[in-house]
Structure formats: C-alpha cells, structure tokens
Design brief:
This protein is 5% helix and 37% strand. By secondary structure, it is mainly beta. A hairpin with a 4-residue loop joins strand 47 and strand 48 (651-657).
Length: 1530
C-alpha cells in the first residue's frame, strides 16, 4: 500500500477544492422573488422581480423557455423585445453569485398583446372571367384573431374600390373586360390593419359562353327609352376547354387508372382521347366516353405522361396532362391472372394458357389514416382500404394513453369515433386490417384532445353610465367557438367573439339579469353563467306637457313629471322676458321648486315669457322642456311730434316718432287738428311722416296719437304735444337776372308777394366748359322765402357758359331762366414730362395744363443753373419741347414751364421745378477679391475733360455662413480711378455703389470675399463609451468664416501617437470611434473644414470603459503542481520519441497531387494532402507526424514536381515510402468518415488514433504537438476499440470511467472549473480563470476579452467580423444577423435568427420560425422536403438521386475520378485567396477533383497567420493549444 506525506495530501486536497464548482462548495444562492411579467405591446414584455433577501448577487441570468433567447443583467428587471403578438411565453430568471453559482429558476408566464397582422398568405386568383375575379388567401402568419379583411380593387389611373369580408375568399364583380386590375387584401386585428398582399389579374375578353341560352333585348331611344323587344337565342357549339381535376385514382406495376371532371363548358362532350407516352417512345392513345379510364400493359418502374383531350361536335380542345411512375412488378393477392407457356425450338408454338387467382394474403396497413375531428372527449378517425384486392373482413382500432393499457374496438367501416376520452391528453390510435388470412400491420396516428369546455369565468356586469351596462368575463379552460349573451331587455341573443359586451340604449336606474354562455360548435352545447347589473343615475329626461296661462295681473307655467325610474328631487325653472315693442330688451330669472307650476304676478304689458323647466336627480340636471306665453297690451303713450313743414299751396308735412311706451303692437297713427275728438287722417304703423291738406295761409294746432291692441278707448293712446303752423301759398317771381361778380356768377330775383310766403325756392344751373369739350359744371340748391330781394352767388369755372333756372314748391311747374359766360383766367401749370442730358444739352418736354381756363396762346421755359444764373424762352401754343444749351458741367440745373391764355395778360402757375445734374459719370466699374477681407475697385469716367470733385463709395455685405449683415461708406476726394475696401467679413457677398459728385445714379458691382480658416468647434465632449469605442459630440464654431464642407477628426494616444483619423459629413455633429482599447485615454481633435482648409482644432480627452480582470488562482495552483508532473512525463516522452525514431522507417510520400490554379493554394493543397496521406497510410511499426502538420510549412520554397515514389532503404526520417498495396481497401473503409474519425486497422494499441486534438484527454501536456505524437491511452486495445470514436475509447487513466460515451467537451474532467457544465460546449462552461465571468453563457468568440487588440475582430466568427464598409452598431455580443440594422423591415426582430425574423418578402411568412433551408419555397423541386436541409432534399436535377439524404458536400459526384471520394462543406474548403482568411463561400468555382487527396478543411482548421507559430495546426480555434493561461483566447 502506497503512503504519502501529510503535506502532499493537504496540497492535493487544496487543489481538488479549487476545481470544485462554486455551487457545490458554497450551495446555491436564493431564487429571485416576486417575478411579474407585463406586456408592453405586441412584441415587448417586461420582467420585474425582487432581490433575494439573503444572497450575494453578482448578476441575474434571464431566459425564455423553448426559445433561443437568454441574457444577463444586473438590474431587477429586463425588457424582452422582438416577441410575437398574441403568444404566451414562459420567462425565467436565476440568481448568479460572484463565484458563478446559479440559483433555481423563478418562472412566470406572460402573453403579448394583440399586434398588427402581417400580410395575408398565399393570395391567388381562383377563377376569373371578363367581368369577375375570384380571390382566395390564407390567414396571416400570426397567433392573433383576424377580425376582418379589406379587399381593394384598382384599375390603373382610377380610384380604388373596396369591400370588407370575414372569409378568406371573395368574388369581385362588375369589372371591365380586357383590363388589368390590382387587388390588395389587408387583414385587421383589434389593434389595427396590417400591410397588404397584392396580386394583379387581367380580365378576359367579353364574350358569350358556348351552348348557352341567353335573352337579348333592344330599345328605341329618342327623348326617352321605349319598352324592350326581347327574344331568346342559344350560342353555337365551340371547342371545349381542358378537362378539370385530372388525377391518378390507382396505379400498379402495369396499370394506371385516371379520372377527371367534365370541362367548364355547357356544350355536350362527345368523347375523350387519352394519350399515354413513355419518354423517348411513340405515344399510344385510346378513346373513351366516360370520365375515367384504366391504361394497362405498362412497363414496371417507368415514368409515363398521360394527356386527356375533350371533343365536342365542333372539334377537340386543349389537353390536361399528368405524370405517374408504375410500381415494381409482382403478383398481388386475391388477383386473377392468365398464365401462358410456349414451346420454343426453331420457333415458338402457340401458347397454352390457364387462369389462376392468387390466395388471400395478409393485408398491408390501411391507407391515409387521419383525424377527421376531435374534441375534448372524442376523436373521429378515417382511413382508406389497404392497397389489396382481397376483401377486408374487419378493422381493429386501438386507443392508448401513454403509460396505460390500450383499449380497442372492432368496426367494419373505414371511420370510427372514439369517445369517453380525457381532456388535454395525448392518445395514440392504431388501425389494423384483417382478411380471412389474418391481421396485417397497423397504421398509427397521435392526437391530443382539447381542453374541456365550461362556462365563462369571472362574469361581471357593471353599469358604466345611465344607459349602458358593460358585461365582461374571462375565458374558460377551453376557449369556446363564441359566446351567447341573452339580452332580456331586448329579448334577443347576441353572438360574441370577444370577452366583453356593452348593453346600450338602457334607461337610468334600470336593473337587468344577464346570462352569458360558452358555445361550442363542434359539440353544439352551451354552458351558461348568470349575473345582474344596474345602470347608474343618469341625466333625467325633460318634464312633460309644459303650458302657460295669462291673465291681467299674472302669468303661470305648468308641467308634468318626466318619464324616468329615478326619483326627481327638484325642478329648475328659468325664464326669459322679452319686450315685444321698442328696442326689444330681454331679461332673465330663475327659481328652484319641488312643485309642478310657477306664477309671476303683475307682469309688464305685451312681454313674451319663455320658460325652461328641467328635472334634477342627485345634483344631475337633465334636459329642459320649453314653453312660452305673452302678457296683455295696454294703451300707448304719446308719440313725439318732430316737425310741421308747409310745402305747397295749403299743404303741411307732419313728421313724428313712436311713443316711448308703446305697451303693445301699434297698428295706426291719427293726425288731430286743434281740440277735435276725431282725427283728420289715419295712417298705418310703419308711416312716420305724412302730408295734410289745409286752407292756405290759415294758422292751426296739430297733434298725433298711436293705436294698439288694448281694449280701452278702442286702442287709441295719449296724444302728443300740439304745434302751430300756417300753410303756404306758392307763386313764381316775374324775373331773374344773371350778373358777373368777379370770376363768379350772381343770380337775383324779387318775391311775387310780400304777404303770403312760398314753401321754398328751387335754384338750378348748368355750365358748359368752353376750353374742355364735353366738360360740364352743374348743381342745384333750395332757398327759403323772404320779403326782400334774394341773390345767390354761384361758384363758377373760367371761360364757361352757364344757364340758370328757378321755380317754387315741391311739385313746381315751368321755371324762369337766365344765362351768362364767365371770362378767361390764368391757366394752371403744364406737366413737365421729361428732362434728358446729353453733351451738356438739356432736352425739356412737357404737356398742356390740365386746367387751361381759356385758349392757350404761349408757353415759357425757365431755368436756373448751379451759379444762380436765370434764363427763359417763350414758345407758341403748339410747341411742347425745348433744348437748353450749356457749355460746362459742375452742378444742378432747375427747369420749370408755364402757360398763358389769349384774354389774360399774365403767365399762369409754373410747373414744379425739376433738376438735372450736369456732372461726369462712371462708364465701367469692376470689383475683385485680392486678399482676405479686401476688395479692389477700378473704374473709368464717361467724360475725361469733366473733372470730378468727390466720389461717394457705399457698400453692403451679407455673410454667406452666418446671419450677419451690414453696410458702410466713405468719400474719395480728387480725380482718382481706383480704391481698396479693407476689413471686410470673410466669405460674404459685397455690393458696391459709387456716386460721382452729387449724382443720384451710381455705378454698381458685386463680388464675394475669400474664405478664411474656421474657429475651433465648441463644446467638444464625450457622450458615451464602452470597452472598445467612444462617442464624441460637438457644436458649431463661433465663426465658420466660409462654407462648411466637412469635419476632420483624429485621435491619438496621450503621448501624441496617431491612432486614427476620419472625415465626416458636415451635417452630423457626433461620431463613434471604434477599435479602441479598454480603460485607455485618447486625445480627440475635431476641426471644421471649409474652402480655406482645416480650421483650428478643438481637443478633448476620452476614455474607454474598464473591463475587470480576475486572477485565475485555481488554474495557477493547478499548473504549478501539474508543471512538475509534466516535466517528468516529457522526459519519458522524449526517450520514447528518440527510441521510435531509431526503430522505425520514415513515412512514405503521399501520391502525387496535380497543380491547381493558384500557386499559393497549390502549395497548401499539396501539403494538406501529404499530411492527410500520412494519417491514412500508416503501417505496422511506422511512425508519422500526425498532429503538427509540419510538412505544410517546411520553408518558403516548395517543389511543384511529383514526389519520387521509389522506396529508399535509408533509416532517416526524410526518406520516402511507397503506397501500400491495400490502399483501395483503406480508402473504401475511410471514405464515409471524417479523417479525425477514421481508425487504421494497421495501428497497434500504442499507435495514434486519428482524433481531433480536442478529443485527446491529457491535461498534463504543454503543447498540442504532443497530442498527435503519442497516444494518451497506451492501454487501449486497438482490436476492440477501433470502431469507436477516439473520444469513446475506455481509458483506465481517467478519473471518471463512465464518461467515455460522450464527446470530450461533455465529459466530466476534474481539470475543469465546473463539473456540472459538461452538458454544454466547452466555450459555454463557467471558467473562473476567464476575464469576464458574466460572459460564460456565450461562445468564446462572443466574450469580452480585455487583452484583445481593440482593432481586430478575431474573437468572432468571420461572418461576425466588422468589415471596413459596415456600420458598427455596438452589437458585437450578438450574431451579425441579430445586430440592429437600419435597413431591415423590422428592427425589433434582432433577438432572433434571421430565419425567424418577419420578412415581408418571403413566400411563406408562417415558416419564419425555421431555418431558411427548412422554409417552404415555391421555387424548390419538392415542397414536401422543406423540413430537411436543402442538401437533403430530393432534387431531380442532381446526378445521384439516392444521395439526397446526405449533405451536398457528401454526395458522390459523377464527374470525379473516384466515386468513393467525399467532399466537405464549402466552409471546409481551402480558399484560393492565398494566406488571407477564408470565406464561407468558395471564392472561385472549384475544378473537378482528380485525386482522393484533394480535399479541403473548414476555415477554422486552416492556417491562421495570426497564430504564435508558423507551424499552426489545421484545427478549429477552440482546438488550438493556448500557451498563455491568463484567460481563454479564441
């Protein structure tokens, strides 16, 4: 018995504890508490939980059961996105301690909300004619209920028409023949309407159907249509269409039975012609009159094409075709055959024949077993008779629940209903057919019964207002087909498909008994639940029968109680009083009462009362009823007498206003003279003035009274105050004189009598202007009577002839007249039209005055120059222009024009003076930008001999990069011709104007100043970061000084080393810098770039996030102990290697591999081939290098000639060997395995098994080269173990002998940190030596590694590496198809595989839950193979149909020289791009293989130039030896 020192035992115990899982050493942490799952829409669920009370929580692990969804979080909540609507999920969360131990999960179910549906599936045209199109589709790929479908039909260029249906088929009618229509179908859930599925179809040409009776009509059309004349007619016989529904009813090895339906025509079919044709042979045909035919005498296992043509009396139509392959030849049971035999010598004799029938045999299994219907307690099965000619005596049907004894029943029919089953239970049904010979094999099928039905749960009826009760409930365990709600109020049953219903149009305070039943259509039963509901107190209705009573001294309103079940507490009475006379003022009042009437005493006369009465219940005031009444009239007050006017002889016009107190509706007014009781004249109420005829020149008193509807005094009211008047007597004067009074005209006359006044004098005049043809001056006036002479001054126009007339009274007769002509006067100012200067000559042009005031005789032009000198010139009446000649320049000249008439001595008013400037001018002006902020001006003068005293230069600028604007000016003295504007704004548009002396007309030019470098950007800051990137943002510079074209960024280390730089668009002000190292500080500079170049930089420091690193203490201790043991093993191994090298022959060379296209690949293929050949052709006593592949990379120079195949007797390792004689046997045995799985029968028990390096268990080796040089299992017997994988061989040196049946990555290995992780991939196991314990749930390529270069993506799959042209969204922890991408239709689907994302462009949206290769694709040869990988589907176009169950890379390719050679996956082939990383798809077509050694490997097994040694193995990255034990490296 061995013994060890105490210190060694303690050390081993410590080492063992360091490798025990944390959970086993510490115990599991407590579970999260109070998990709640809440939907936040159709695709989002929120998990919330409470922290365990007594647990060290490092983070939480969250997942969704049954889905590839899991993650970690440090918060007590998590948001799941990208879920499907209307779907129940099971969510779980575990507590994870700092040591990596996980608690038991806390789980909860949650259902997502209703979502918008995707487009309907499989939209297609079922049928179409010239005016109809029938569409059909399938429900969208969603779990949500579809409430309706909206179908639109649109012709190009017209508005769409639409219809709403609840089914998945619709017929669109009333279409136009030969027209293309686009049909769109939208599905709607309770959330809303989803996207459309669309299809287009052109209607056929309008025509009548053959053999069809139609009724034809014609009408006569004139102003209208006549009654139609009609007649019947039948169309002729036409060619028939193809037969319908052609199918194979039955087929054997030599017969095929076909059936079809009559073509879609009304014509009689006379016959059918059936064609049968084998490929490459002549067709055979037969004629039948029925719609079925049996074609016999066929060849077994042969593909035949059958065509069926229908014929009418008109001729034969098109064919319907179908293909069928006959079965293998053989005799069938219970079948009568005719057998024959002939004698054969030099010829054949006549046959001797006899009939015979085969015996009854055991029947095959029943055909097409399927479930016709199933409920919670019954399942109905159906099948077809087995494929035999024998009679079936009975069928035995068994039903078995898992774990129980089967029950059986016997039937004679091909259908059975199995009852008395348990709800929600999986049953397996088997059907056996029996003949007289016995019972045959069974056909089986499984079916789960549904949930048991029941009444609605949690039925509640709640009055939500005064007219509605909301009834709601929850589903029973088994959702029914629908619900029936019994509405006792309306005495009807309502069918409901939701979980609530609103009963409306009820009365307030109403109580209802309500019954809701679950109705199941399949069993035609309902299960009721009953409750009671009551409406709330609502707005009471209006009171009834409102009326008003009126008397002399009161007015009363009455009403009745409203019709309501609620108790009325009070009535609110409001009324409005409107005066019905005068200005119609209104006033309002109100009162609250419990009675049914209200009275107002002593109301004002003739006022309208409008009452509104409303009932009040519990403070709720209802609608009001309205009624009105009018109080009685009383006598009116006195009118207001306004005036008495004597108009003509004996007539007086009386004018008045209505009385202030009308007290009623005034109907008349009366005119009273003196104190008389009766009126002299009565007028209607709308009259306010009237004429009374009296005796002329006799004085009287006149008053007015009003009359209304009052009873007293017959309605006449009080009279107005009386006024006195004397009626006039009108007489025309004998004469009137027209006299000149200065420029005006004076009309004078004497009254006819000084005793009796006239009512009025009417004076009128009309003048014709003699200097303006057609112009007149007319007017009139009224004058009062006077005893003295009357004169009136008429304002007159010069040189105008006036006629004046005079008469008296209102209805005057013939007037008296006089006439006179006014004298001429000085004319008004002429109109100065234009002043034009040319060569010191001023051209003056004018027009005649507007007011000539006579006949124009002359015009006078006057001017005054800049020295004050005045001059003038007179022209005749017909001259309207003049030229003023000057002989110098230097100032302004003022010009005026005046006119004169013939009878007036003086010139009239001068025209307003106008000035012209006799100065020099600039003929050309140029602006040029020479220096930043400067503009150079150059100009030339028009007249070189005219000196300039002063230039006034003005300029304005508008900045092109800001909102700055401004202007300035300066003066230049002297005779200069250039100047420079300085200190201008950069990149601004400058407009310049130069005025010469006092000229108002400037010379102009425009230019743009040069751009200058920009100020630095402002507010440069870091906005976000992680371990590999940082995001910076900035604001615009204070002064851009030009047109901003872009931003330039560069980032350096703190010591100034440039890391990277980038130009970005001017439209963005934020940038994410990728490829940085974690916990590192960088200096980022941002510069604005304009036309002047890069501006001043703005700098800031950014820092990436820190990823904590944990020291792998356990691993270091283990390696410290294991290192010593390993040194001992290496010494022993070295001795064995030395001994083998001197006891064995060198490896033989591999057969020659021909050159390939690319030279680099040529070398790589050859060396791979030689490496594989060394592994294949091992012999007794031979030693090879099976692990290092050192022959792949001996040096940089490779030979391209085939190796010498002669054998050398030298014992050196570099000598070559010949190919073994049994090479073909070795190849045939190895062709169906991976190289790593092939076992060489020539190896002894010490030889190397061709395992993957990762499958060789040896925790003490420090180099993977040792894995392939020496077996880690020296005691394994090759004779018994060679048929297993190397990882399955029993090894007595392992700690756990029971794990040999698993992959090495699944075996329990004491060298692994967690013994409970063997069920996962090694990359997913918890490794306390890793840098980030939170990453254990991911593949190594997805873990965050602090020591990786931030600019390289080697830790990911090639497909996950960020290419230079890709945008990095920060999703490095996910697969690329899971990263958020802005161009995808649904950004919320990133949590799934690409094949699971909803993609509107896929043929079958219901298949997105599968791999893309498993989806139904209409373009694939066999749609029933979608459950397999594409490489496993049956493809008629492939060379070898029997290979479809293999991957395409494993199929035998007929073009290859060796059919036994297998290919590999494309990802395992060596790319032809040299030493670059291989692509998953071949980069060039792979030429046909000419040698069995021409195989390739997976990209992960190819040489990686980033490995530590140039002798890197052709292995997966996870199989390569990790020399640095600081952490896992991918």
């Amino acid at each position: 018995m061995l013994s060890f020192p105490r210190s060694v035992c303690l050390l081993l115990a410590t080492l063992l504890c360091s490798y025990l899982p944390a959970g086993e050493a510490e115990g599991k942490p407590d579970m999260p508490q109070n998990l709640i799952v809440t939907p936040q829409g159709p695709s989002i669920m929120i998990m919330k939980w409470s922290r365990p009370s007594s647990a060290e929580v490092d983070h939480y692990f969250v997942y969704v059961e049954g889905e590839d969804l899991k993650d970690t979080t440090i918060a007590e909540y998590y948001i799941w996105e990208g879920l499907e609507g209307c779907t129940t999920y099971t969510f779980g969360v575990k507590t994870v301690s700092s040591s990596g131990s996980e608690s038991d999960p806390t789980v909860a179910d949650g259902r997502t909300d209703v979502s918008y549906p995707p487009e309907p599936q499989d939209l297609h045209v079922v049928n179409y004619t010239y005016d109809t199109v029938t569409l059909a589709w399938r429900k969208p790929a969603t779990q949500c209920d579809i409430e309706k479908y909206r179908v639109t039909c649109q012709e190009e260029g017209s508005q769409p028409a639409e219809t709403v249906v609840n089914e998945t088929t619709v017929e669109v009618s009333q279409l136009t023949p030969e027209t293309l229509y686009t049909f769109s179908v939208y599905a709607s859930t309770s959330e809303g309407e989803g996207p459309a599925a669309s299809i287009s179809q052109t209607t056929t040409t309008a025509r009548l159907e053959d053999c069809t009776n139609y009724t034809f009509g014609v009408k006569t059309v004139s102003s209208g249509e006549s009654d139609p004349a009609v007649a019947d007619g039948e169309t002729n016989v036409g060619y028939p269409p193809e037969p319908q529904d052609l199918h194979v009813m039955n087929y054997t090895y030599d017969t095929v039975t076909l059936a079809w339906r009559k073509p879609a025509t009304q014509c009689d079919i006379e016959k059918y012609r059936v064609i049968c044709q084998e490929e490459g042979s002549q067709p055979a045909e037969t004629i039948v009159n029925e719609t079925t035919v049996e074609v016999s005498q066929l060849t077994p296992e042969t593909l035949y094409t059958f065509s069926v043509y229908a014929s009418t009396s008109e001729g034969e139509g098109p064919a319907a075709s179908i293909s069928q392959t006959t079965t293998t030849a053989g005799l069938e049971d219970c079948t009568n055959y005719t057998f024959g035999v002939k004698t054969v010598s030099s010829g054949e004799s006549d046959p001797a024949v006899a009939d015979g029938e085969t015996n009854v045999g055991y029947p095959p299994e029943p055909q097409d077993l399927h479930v016709m219907n199933y409920t919670y307690d019954t399942v109905t099965l159906a099948w077809r008779k087995p494929a035999t000619q024998c009679d079936i005596e009975k069928y035995r049907v068994t039903c078995q629940e898992e774990g129980s004894q089967p029950a059986e029943t016997v039937v004679n029919e091909t259908t059975v209903e199995v009852s008395q089953l348990t709800p929600e239970t999986l049953y397996t049904f088997s059907v056996y057919a029996s003949t007289s010979e016995g019972e045959g094999p069974a056909a089986s099928i499984s079916q789960t019964t549904t949930t048991a039905p029941g009444p609605p749960q949690n039925l509640v009826a709640e009055g939500i207002n005064s007219s509605a009760i909301n009834v709601s409930w929850s589903e029973p365990n088994l959702p029914p087909s629908y619900y029936l709600l019994t509405d006792y109020h309306n005495n009807i049953d309502v069918r409901i498909f939701g979980l609530q219903f609103m009963i409306v149009e009820l009365e307030p305070c109403m109580t209802l008994d309500i019954t809701v039943s679950s109705y199941y259509e399949d069993i035609e039963k309902k299960f009721p639940a009953t409750t009671r509901g009551k409406t709330t107190v609502g707005v009471p209705p209006e009171p009834q029968n409102c009326s008003v009573d009126v008397a002399d001294n009161y007015i009363t309103v009455n009403w009745e109680k409203p019709k309501t079940s609620c108790k009325i507490e009070t009535y609110i009475v409001n009324w409005t009083i409107k005066k019905l006379w005068g200005s119609g003022e209104e006033e309002s009042n109100g009162i609250e009462t419990r009675g049914l009437s209200h009275t107002e005493n002593n109301p004002p006369p003739y006022h309208r009362y409008t009452f509104e009465i409303a009932a009040s219940v519990e403070g709720i005031v209802g609608d009001a009823i309205s009624c009105s009444g009018t109080t009685l009239e009383t006598n009116a007050g006195p009118p207001v007498l306004v005036s008495l006017v004597s108009e003509e002889q004996g007539e007086v016009r009386v004018t008045w206003e209505p009385p202030a107190e009308e007290n009623g509706n005034i109907t008349h007014y009366g005119i009273y003279l003196n104190d008389a009781d009766d009126y002299v004249k009565e007028v209607s109420e709308e009259v306010r003035t009237t004429t009374v005829t009296l005796e002329a020149c006799v004085s009287v008193d006149i008053s007015v009274a009003a009359r209304n509807g009052a009873v007293k005094n017959d309605g006449w009211g009080e009279r107005s105050e009386a006024k006195n008047v004397t009626p006039a007597g009108d007489a025309l004067p004998e004469q009137m004189d027209c006299l000149q009074h200065g420029p005006d005209l004076l009309a004078c006359w004497l009254p006819y009598s000084t005793d009796c006044p006239v009512s009025q004098y009417n004076l009128q005049w009309e003048g014709h202007v003699l200097w303006s043809p057609g112009a007149t001056d007319s007017n009139s006036t009224t004058l009062g009577w006077s005893r003295d002479e009357i004169c009136y001054n008429i304002p007159s126009i010069p040189y105008t002839k006036y006629t004046v007339s005079l008469n008296v009274g209102i209805n005057a007769g013939k007037p008296i007249t006089c006439s006179s002509t006014t004298p001429m006067a000085a004319p008004g100012p002429p109109t100065l039209e234009k002043l034009q200067v040319e060569n010191f000559t001023i051209s003056v042009t004018w027009k005649e005055p507007l007011e000539k005031n006579g006949i124009i005789s002359n015009y006078r032009v006057e001017w005054t120059d800049w020295n004050g000198r005045v001059d003038s010139q007179v022209t005749d009446k017909n001259t309207f222009s003049y030229q003023i000649m000057e002989n110098s320049c230097g100032g302004e000249v003022d010009v005026t024009v005046s006119a004169k008439t013939t009878d007036f001595d003086e010139f009239g008013e001068r025209s307003p003076p106008e000035s012209v400037l006799l100065v020099n001018s600039i003929s050309s002006l140029t602006c040029e930008t020479t220096e930043p902020g400067e503009v150079a001006l150059n100009w030339e003068l028009q007249e070189l001999n005219c000196p300039v005293n002063l230039y006034n230069v003005t300029w304005s600028f508008t900045s092109l990069w800001s909102e700055d604007k401004g202007s300035d000016s300066k003066s230049l003295i002297g005779n200069v011709s250039s100047d420079t504007l300085e200190h201008l704004k950069p990149y601004s548009e400058v407009s310049v104007a130069i005025y010469v002396d006092n000229s108002t007309q400037p010379a102009n030019c425009t230019t743009t100043t040069q751009e200058e470098v920009s100020d630095p950007p402002t507010n440069l800051r870091q906005t976000a970061n992680n371990s590999h990137s940082a995001t910076v943002a900035w604001d615009s510079p204070e002064s851009v000084r030009g047109k901003l074209s872009s931003w330039h960024l560069n980032w350096t280390t703190e010591n100034g080393n440039l890391v990277g730089e980038q130009d970005v668009s001017a439209t963005i002000k934020t940038f994410q810098i990728e490829g940085l190292s974690s916990s590192w500080t960088y200096v980022v500079s941002v510069m604005a770039v304009n036309g002047a170049g890069r501006g001043k930089p703005s700098n800031t420091n950014v820092k990436t996030a820190y990823v904590p690193k944990e020291t792998p203490l356990g691993l270091i201790l283990g390696l410290s102990i294991g290192g010593g043991v390993l040194l001992i093993l290496l010494a022993i191994g070295g001795f064995v290697v030395y001994w083998k090298k001197h006891q064995t022959k060198p490896p033989r060379p591999a057969p020659f591999m021909p050159n390939v296209i690319d030279s680099d690949n040529d070398k790589l293929y050859k060396r791979q081939h030689q490496s594989s050949a060394n592994q294949r052709f091992q012999g007794e006593g031979e030693t090879i290098d099976s692990g290092t592949n050192r022959e792949l990379y001996p040096d940089d120079n490779m030979e391209t000639e085939p190796p010498n195949e002669t054998c050398n007797d030298d014992d050196t390792v570099n000598e070559q060997f010949t190919v073994p004689e049994n090479i073909n046997n070795i190849l045939e045995e190895a062709v169906d395995r991976r190289l790593s799985q092939q076992v060489s029968s020539n190896l002894d028990h010490k030889a190397v098994f061709n395992r993957r390096p990762s499958q060789l268990v040896n925790i003490r080796m420090n180099s993977f080269e040792e894995y392939n040089k020496h077996s880690s299992h020296p005691n394994i017997a090759a004779a018994s173990e060679h048929d297993r994988r190397p990882s399955h061989h029993e090894s007595r040196s392992r700690s756990n002998m029971r794990e040999f049946g698993r992959r090495p990555s699944q075996q329990v290995d004491l060298g692994k940190p967690n013994l409970m992780e063997y069920g996962r991939r090694p990359s997913q196991q918890i490794d306390v030596g890793g840098h980030n314990l939170n990453e254990f749930g991911r593949r190594p390529s997805q873990q965050i590694d602090e020591h990786r270069p931030r600019t390289m993506e080697h830790g990911r799959r090639f497909s996950q590496q960020i290419e230079p042209g890709k945008q990095r969204l920060g999703e490095y922890g996910r697969r690329p198809p899971q990263q958020g991408e802005l161009g995808r239709p649904n950004l919320r689907e990133y949590g799934r595989r690409p094949s699971q994302q909803v993609d509107l462009g896929r043929p079958n949206l219901r298949e997105y839950g599968r791999r893309p290769s498993q989806q139904v694709d209409l373009g694939r040869p066999n749609l029933r193979e979608y459950g397999r990988r594409p490489s496993q589907q049956i493809d008629l176009g492939r060379p070898n149909l029997r290979e479809y169950e293999r991957r395409s890379s494993q199929q035998i390719e007929l073009k290859r020289p060796r059919q036994e050679e297998f290919a590999r996956r494309p990802s395992q082939q060596v790319g032809i791009s040299g030493r670059s990383l291989p692509s998953r798809a071949p980069q060039q077509p792979i030429p046909p293989r000419l040698d069995y050694g021409d195989y390739t490997r997976r990209p992960s097994q190819q040489t990686d130039i980033g490995l530590p040694s140039d002798r890197a193995f052709m292995r997966r990255p996870s199989q390569q030896f990790v020399m640095n034990f600081e952490g896992i490296k991918e």
